[in-house]
């Protein structure tokens, strides 16, 4: 499924582990939080809050990404983004990434260069450094990322804090990655906006700490899809959540794409994964920051309803199922 | 190469991602540094020093471990130990592990249970919690671990601080994992002491912070082999290191095993990897803590010599080569 590399390309086996590490780390700029970067037994990262927020995600070729659909740079950006979004969803500012990369000996070194370039780019967008990692040989290309973050004195916003009567709001793109997947699955490469959203998400990193400072009672990033992820908040908080479709923005671009493919744009918004937008609950409408969009409310009971009713289509994705 | 699982065993596909996560996390005890454990977007770990030490290692089935040589528990212990040793080698106390696990759909759930049990066991030995992770499907079994640690007010002990005239000392087992590998490679399963050392190392975790407090000028854990790892210190510090063989303890058990296999026990001690002992330089002999063994000195020049001469046999291991 991978495109043929150029015939003269160096493989990772030819460049070697230590050569690759040099290519990944040479000439990079670190943020001030990186007190000791790559090259020693471990990195040292500033944790001025006295607590560190940490999250790990693993991405596997042909499960989480395809190198015939996405450039290595996009894959790197996505691998970083899915993790950095988890940090933001706690209300923390990302500070650092650590990269574990396992790949076959015949992987072109340019693929590794591209993936790591994408990781550095996305880390820079979020304000984080790439502080360490490990590169090993494997039959399958696997990228494992750990992101660290700092809470800057705020309490972490967990999934279990939603209260009946809270307002539900979202920030960031919803349904775009699903639209991009639908386009790519049918063999198209455009429109670029939705295809790009599938290749690498654009989480609204600063909106996480912003929501925490505004008093958000629960927060999550939409990796599995809005309904599925709000379902995690509902379950953890012991409440129900109702989404009002008249409040739910469906971008005209998504409606265009859905209409061209005979698909349902609202279904993408409600259930599409991989956008890594933020969804949160707030004690009242006045607390919701300006760039967040109110979409519903927390109600007694359990589960997530849409306009007061259950939503029929399968809402999530589970590995090995 | 993997032994056949029992016919009635559940696979990870049957148990499912969320079921597996429940099995991994249910009923576990966390240390006080785990402020928020698994189950949310990210974990929160105490970092009282205001800095966090972080390291990632990736282990791949049939590259770093074999399930026909090691039980899943041993594999888990090893995966944790190699990372926790990196934290100790900076002079820090381990606080937390994050686990990325990628495995085929037909992997017996008991294998995942065993690996994670081993991770929890080794984390407990080091005083760390298992605070988060990710489980995904992959054609290859890959374990990616990130370890975090706290410096407790001490400066991190880097590889580049060795000074001419410093004393070189080690703490922990050396050559045991290599002896175990030699035994296993020849189809034997005993002696248990060396085979066990190959299956999972026993890094002397508290000796890292102890060396830092005693004024160690440089430190590393012996993952690639004593000469190779001291070579990393020599290169980073711009110095040479000389090992005196009359100071180098070669355990009688290793001499017995070597003699039975027609091998050289001292060669295992000098070059065997995967023991994750600690090697450090100290400003003088009086600074060396009691449980450390002086083995040589830092000299002008570069490289690592043994009794003043170069060591001929290939000293290290590099991936994809």
How far apart are the first and last residues' alpha carbons of chain A, in Å?
22 Å
Q: How much helix is in the residues of chain A? A: 25-40%
CATH topology of the largest domain in chain A: Phosphoribosyl-aminoimidazole Synthetase, Chain A, domain 2
Total helix count of chain A?
Answer: 10
CATH superfamily of the largest domain in chain A: PurM-like C-terminal domain
Any idea what the shape of chain A is?
Answer: globular
Cα gyration radius of chain A (Å): 20 Å
Largest binding interface between chains: A-B, 73 and 73 residues
Largest sheet of chain A: 6 strands, mixed
User: Mean of residue pLDDT of chain A?
Assistant: 92
Strand content of chain A: 15-25%
Q: In terms of structural class, how would the helical and strand content of chain A be classed?
A: alpha+beta
Tell how many strands the DSSP assignment of chain A holds: 12
Series of H and E elements of chain A: HHEEEHEHEEEHHHEHEHHEEE
Ordered list of secondary-structure elements with their pairings:
The structure is a homodimer of 321-residue chains.
Chain A: H1 12-15, H2 17-25, E1 34-36, E2 43-46, E3 51-60, H3 72-88, E4 93-103, H4 109-126, E5 129-137, E6 142-150, E7 167-171, H5 176-185, H6 192-199, H7 207-213, E8 218-221, H8 226-237, E9 240-243, H9 252-261, H10 265-271, E10 278-282, E11 293-299, E12 303-306
Parallel strand pairs in A: 4-5, 9-12
Antiparallel strand pairs in A: 1-2, 3-6, 4-6, 7-10, 7-11, 8-10, 9-11
Helix pairs in contact in A: 3-4, 5-6, 5-9, 5-10
Binding site for Mg(2+) 5 (chains A, B): 224
Binding site for Mg(2+) 3 (chains A, B): 41, 86, 221
Pathway (chains A, B): Cofactor biosynthesis; thiamine diphosphate biosynthesis; thiamine diphosphate from thiamine phosphate: step 1/1
């Amino acid at each position: 499924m991978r495109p043929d590399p150029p015939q003269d390309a160096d493989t990772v086996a030819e460049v070697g582990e230590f050569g690759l590490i040099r290519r990944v780390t040479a000439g990079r700029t670190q943020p001030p939080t990186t007190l000791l970067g790559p090259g020693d037994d471990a990195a040292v990262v500033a944790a001025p809050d006295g607590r560190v927020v940490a999250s790990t995600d693993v991405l596997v070729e042909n499960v989480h990404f395809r190198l015939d659909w996405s450039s290595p740079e996009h894959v790197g950006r996505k691998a970083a983004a899915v993790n950095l979004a988890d940090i933001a969803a706690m209300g923390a500012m990302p500070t650092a990434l650590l990269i574990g990369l396992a790949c076959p000996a015949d992987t072109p070194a340019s693929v590794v260069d591209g993936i790591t370039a994408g990781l550095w780019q996305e880390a820079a967008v979020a304000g984080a450094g790439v502080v360490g990692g490990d590169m090993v040989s494997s039959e399958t290309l696997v990228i494992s990322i750990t992101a660290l973050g700092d809470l800057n004195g705020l309490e972490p916003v967990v999934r279990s804090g939603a209260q009946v009567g809270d307002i539900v709001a979202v920030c960031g793109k919803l349904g775009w990655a699903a639209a991009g997947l639908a386009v790519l699955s049918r063999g198209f490469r455009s429109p670029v906006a939705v295809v790009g959203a599938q290749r690498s998400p654009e989480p609204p990193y600063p909106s996480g700490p912003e929501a925490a400072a505004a008093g958000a009672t629960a927060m999550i990033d939409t990796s599995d899809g809005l309904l599925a992820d709000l379902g995690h908040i509902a379950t953890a908080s012991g409440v129900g959540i109702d989404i009002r479709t008249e409040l739910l923005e469906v971008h005209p671009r998504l409606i265009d794409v859905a209409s061209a493919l005979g698909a349902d744009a609202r279904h993408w918004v409600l259930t599409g994964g991989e956008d890594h937008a933020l969804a949160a609950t707030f004690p009242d409408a006045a607390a919701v920051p300006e760039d967040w969009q109110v979409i519903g409310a927390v109600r007694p009971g359990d589960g997530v309803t849409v306009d007061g009713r259950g939503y029929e289509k399968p809402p999530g994705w589970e590995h090995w199922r």
